Amino acid sequence: MAFSAxxxxxxxxxxxxxxxxxxxxxxxxxxxxxxxxxxxxxxxxLYDFAPPKEMVVATHDAMVKNKNGYAPSSGIKSAVDAIAxxxxxxxxxxxxxxxVTTGASEAIxxxxxxxxxxxxxxxxxxPGYPLYTxxxxxxxxxxNPYYLDEANGWQPDIxxxxxxxxxxxxxxxxxxxxxxxxxxxxTSTLHEIVALAEKYNLVIFADExxxxxxxxxxxxxxxxxxxxxxxxxxxGGLSKNYMVPGFxxxxxxxxxxxxxxxxxIEAINKILRARLSANHPEQYAIPAALGGDHKHLxxxxxxxxxxxxxTVEMMNDIDGISCVKPEGAFYAFPQMNIxxxxxxxxxxxxxxxxxxxxxxxxxxxxxxxxxxIVFLPQYEVLEKAYKNIATFYKQYVDQYGTKED
Length: 405
Description:
By secondary structure, this protein is α/β, with parallel strands linked by helices. The chain has helices at 18-30, 53-64, 77-89, 103-115, 131-138, 158-164, 187-200, 258-274, 285-290, 295-316, 341-352, 379-400, and strands spanning 37-38, 95-102, 121-126, 142-149, 155-156, 169-175, 203-207, 232-237, 249-255, 321-322, 331-332, 335-336, 354-355, 357-358, 371-374.
């Protein structure tokens, strides 16, 4: 008897991840021998960035001491204590729980899974990191995107958020600094989001994985620090600030009124216990990182500052492209006067070997076209890539026209 085709679960139908999906095409183009210039993956270790040595030493020592078995479900004590100290330094009060996870991604998935039932929704920033929509699809929750205002430095559009809240809305996600735009939220905007959470009884998910990567003397404010009673989960990790995405170490900090959060925290911990633990030896890097001198950030931000400025200058010099200056992280999200950013990015890869990610992969206001650029690569690589983009963009518009054509 022949097997019938295996039907996958419906919950996987709408799962996409543009950052990795575009690599399939890039790999095919690379086989032709074309020089590839990758501006698509936010991995500092692919370029000239490295973690503080004390983190590597701490992890190595833990392995040598055979800390290679299961860890406690919520993380080892020294790691949790270090995270608690940093939370206090950030002004976060009323901390009710802290847990270590396999990257901030797992923390996000655990917390969404513990909160959202089928048919409910979470307010999700658009543009925003595609992990959130992928998880919501898996949970069979409705997508409820709210827009960031490009004309206002990609700040969350508070009026749009208000218009999207309904009786099935459970939480609001804030990515700050934002991926893919590099925006950093104004304190006044954060206060307005807190007020909405209070009014509509929403949990705030504060993704702050890039909170130490800020330009131009900008400061980061943790939204949980503005109100000690609002239910908030603050996500952090080692991947970006400490240049070790491969360690897969992240965490969540649950703060707010204890009585309000009690049942939700237990639901989170049920899931944490069921998956046993996060990576064990790498957790010893957490106190080494958070308690370190952070000298690596001085060197990293000096490089990134120059690369950010080059990106903004060269993108804005292209007729038909405009780029808001990022205030944090290492991404830019320029807008293009074209009809289809998916098509543009595909043709860009085929013709030039420059790999970016189409804006549709992150969400965008209907009728607009963007691409995400990662400006981690060396200055000379970026300069070459941007010259290629400028040349190709003119050719593309000549052939396919603009939005107005």
